[in-house]
Predict the 3D structure of the following.
Amino acid sequence: MSSQDCIVALASGRAVAALSLIRASGEGIFEIFKSMLQSEVQLEPNHSQFCRLYSQGEPIDEVVATYFKAPKSFTGEDMIEISCHGNPLIVERIIEEFVSRGTRIAEAGEFSRRAYKNNKMSLWDLEALDLLMSSSQVEGVRWAIRSKLEASGLRLQDFRNRLSEVLSQVEAELDFPEHEVDQGTRDGLTKAIEAMALELESWAISFEKSRSHFFSPKVAILGPPNVGKSSLFNCLLGQERAIVYNLAGTTRDLLEAQLRLGGLDLCLVDTAGLRESSDPLERLGMQKSLEVLKAADLVLWLSDQAEPAPQSYRELAKDSKWLFLATKSDLRAREQRKEAWIYISSQTGEGIEKLKKELLSWQKGRPDFEGSLHLSSDRQCQLVREAQSLLSEALDLAAGSAELEWLAQKLREANQRLEPLIGKIGHEEILGRILSRFCIGK
Amino acid sequence: MKLLKDSYDVIVVGAGHAGVEAALAAQRKALKVLLLSMSADQIATMSCNPAVGGLGKSQLAKELDILGGQMARIADQSALQYRVLNARKGPAVRATRVHCDRHEYRQRMKFFVESQEGLYLKQAQVTELLFEGHQLIGLKTKGGQPYYSRQIVITTGTFMNGKAHLGHTSFSAGRAGEAASVGLSDFLSSIGLRIRRFKTGTVPRVDARSIDFTKTEEQASDPEASSLSFFTKERRKDLEPAHLTYTNPRTHEIIRQSMDQSPLYSGMIESRGPRYCPSVEDKVLRFPDKDRHQVFLEREGRWTHEVYVGGLSTSLPLDRQEEFLRSIEGLESVEIIRPGYAIEYDYLDSTQLKHNLEVRDVPGLFFAGQVNGTSGYEEAAAQGLMAGINAALRAKGEEAFTLKRAEAYTGVLIDDLVERGTEEPYRMLSSRAEWRLLLREDNVDQRLFPHAKRLGLLSEADLESLESRLSLRQESMARLSKINLKASEHLSLFRSLGLEPPSRPMRFVDYMRRPEFKTEHLGPILEALEEGFELSDMDWTQILTDLKYSGYVKQAETQIHQMDRMERMKIPEALNFGEIKGLPIEAIESLSKNRPRSFFEAKRLQGLTPASLQVLALYIQRERKNHACQKA
Ligand SMILES: Cc1cc2nc3c(=O)[nH]c(=O)nc-3n(C[C@H](O)[C@H](O)[C@H](O)COP(=O)(O)OP(=O)(O)OC[C@H]3O[C@@H](n4cnc5c(N)ncnc54)[C@H](O)[C@@H]3O)c2cc1C
Ligand SMILES: Nc1nc2c(ncn2[C@@H]2O[C@H](COP(=O)(O)OP(=O)(O)O)[C@@H](O)[C@H]2O)c(=O)[nH]1
Ligand SMILES: [Mg+2]
């Protein structure tokens, strides 16, 4: 079986709608589609055509079909897009027809992967698309669209040119000893590297700051047993999701729920209480709680005595935002209240509005859409970070007494890291630049 | 019936820098070798610049030296001057350049070649190859004489269909004063090889007595430079300076006004020349802002008044050359002995070769040197050596010998030629080497000794001296690492050397790693510590560099090791490529047809994109894991 085997899938949502879109791709898909028609219908590439689909002589639906001929299609293969009536039963029957004719149901993301493999899409595009499809937040979608547009944009091109220029300046000095370099050129070089390092840093920072907006941020409710975690969970959700019981160790598994707060989605997690315990089941629950702690974007630390979280827990989520909640405020006297704690009561509702406001204002730090390049995956961000630190090392070398070929080495490595983003800057390109810029030769 | 006397283990066509190394390498493998040259006088002639070495090139020459080639030794023997290039930069881009007496070089090489047992030098022009069915069996000369061998190495340089240009005139030539080789490249095309055309050029040679050297800058030989060959025991004492002068706006004006008479610009020459070796016409036209260009004046030999005018490659007519030369300071009344000229020639598209320099589709036929699209003596010689070795190994039925990009510039050179080919005459540059920091002049012996030993081209004595040098270095290193520095000792010495004294007790080798520590600091410090070592400057450079680079070297070695493992990954013989999900049809076809045995071989197939290779690698790895699980 080769990559050319035919695949089919519903491209639009599963919900009942007026219309649904089915996509099929692969070599011979056109013939398969034609065998589902009764009359001889002329299908021209890139034109839509009204037609009737049949299954063993029985009509299934009236559809509008568009034929895309390889390589001018999304996947780079022959493709058919069928817009049919939106009843899931109809959709299912059409897909079944394809399958009975040797087409297989596409795996998740398979259309994009084929597009990537056939050079219809760069890795950059693929990742941007991935983000686009998986973002659960408006911000994520906006970001991803910008990222997609950027693939062909000038910013990457510009960065690439600058790196290529710096690389060729250094290589020229190394390979053509007769090529003299003055201090001005040297300073220019250092400045250029510095500017690039700063720019990479700004890409990474703005991605890191914004990524929490692409997906619902995780808000973990943590604290010792019996302090009222599950009660708060239910209170915020406005429904009884978790079992509330005055026996420590009641909640052993994790409970997750989507919380909508003024147009903002949060993923709220209730956890097992954290304490010493010999019950293996409870210990397992606690282990899970710690996992959640590590992954949380925001930690709600609950204590009915306003006792701070142990340092070892704080360490686990150093970079996350923490809010400290003193629970059961209805049972405490007002005068003993500590600064920096929010006093809440799930029973009287005290402090709950204040907590919601805190959550909202934490989310107010919106991603910075302007001014920066839009990376679309952790992988890209990681590469950018690595390249940035290599450029910084290069700067240190330039400032010290290190030899020029070390500077060149760092630049080369930075280039390698950025290859998936800006493409390879090969030797021929560098040589071309050197020779067009400098008069070199015996 | 073939006559035994006309039959050889290896025949080499051409006795340029590539040809002599190929013939000597094969001969050193104890084979009967025939070396054919259009002229028995012109052996390893330096067609252009009378110098060996330079950036990237000195590494090639030294690699060849360690593996058992001749170039570096003869260069030292006929040296006129030594220079160190990039002396102020680091060891990875430092290079030695030997300016030679080109007549002496040629004569010494000729005599050396002639003196080898089993190596036959003959003057003849080869015009065709002989086949028995598809099997290469020999060749035929213009005079109709056949010679037989199943291994033939072609090293015809700039000679095939060579055409020289001087002003508006052009004439058939392999090099000025020598006939072109006509017939062979047509024959090669007729058997289906892709032949293309390049051009190159050279500078005028002038009479030393007509130069006023007092108006030029003198450049003495560099006393710091070490010999090119590892095996040179004693350096020549009778070295000479070179001289430096400059062009000026008037020179440029004359050249600009003569442009219509340049075959490069009138459209007479259409083939591509080396951009990094521009003619002076190119320089003036493309860089109008520069008001002067360097001109090196280098004697061509001790027994001639001819001077090489470096930097002024040209193909303008003779009178124009004379006029612009005379506008240059020191050359006001210069007399030209031979004018500069440009030359066009046929070369082989090198992507038709395998890594052993054998033509993919014609077993036994090897190519090396400028005929593969390169430029330069060292590039030619390095290929010649490798082709000669591989022709010999084939004759003996042994496995091919190749070098990796990570172990030698020679490996980079051949890999570039075979994998990428070249769009202009290919010159070695350090920037072509991705492992530049590993491929240094100072560690060539260490890098290649194991290969040299296995190949056995060097004499027993030479191998021994290499080995003892290496072990001396190792022992010295062991001793060095035992030396400790105290905190308050020799303070004034360190300060007088401009070094920060150690602030706490530390190992001397750790102190040596500091960036500001240089080789020149070693002498005084070791003396003060009362430690004596019998190491040469080159040894010290090597030790110090290894120390300083150790972090990088370790990291690089891991990477190289991983790449190697990947390349060596075996492809199961029974593998049905059609079953691999995700492989495009072209890849399946190419793999099924060629049945590569390893990933390394698969990488070299046509029609395999990086994506396909990745799919293949993943598949093999997964299969292997599955197998392992089943067995367990
Ligand atoms: C005008 C000119 C300018 C150059 N400029 C530069 C430069 O700027 N920089 C640089 O690095 N290099 C330059 N070179 C190139 C340098 O000379 C070569 O790279 C080097 O000499 C190549 O060595 P080789 O062994 O491949 O070929 P060559 O040295 O050219 O030797 C070829 C040999 O093959 C023999 N031969 C050819 N055809 C036949 C045949 N049919 N039968 C038998 N024998 C044959 C010839 O007699 C000769 O002995 C220049 C060369 C020329 C001619
Ligand atoms: N008075 C008072 N009791 C509370 C409050 N919140 C929780 N409790 C009680 O504390 C006990 C433990 O509550 P629960 O939510 O199960 O705690 P958890 O173990 O941290 O999840 C239950 O008996 C709750 O009724 C509150 O705000 N006020
Ligand atoms: Mg609970």
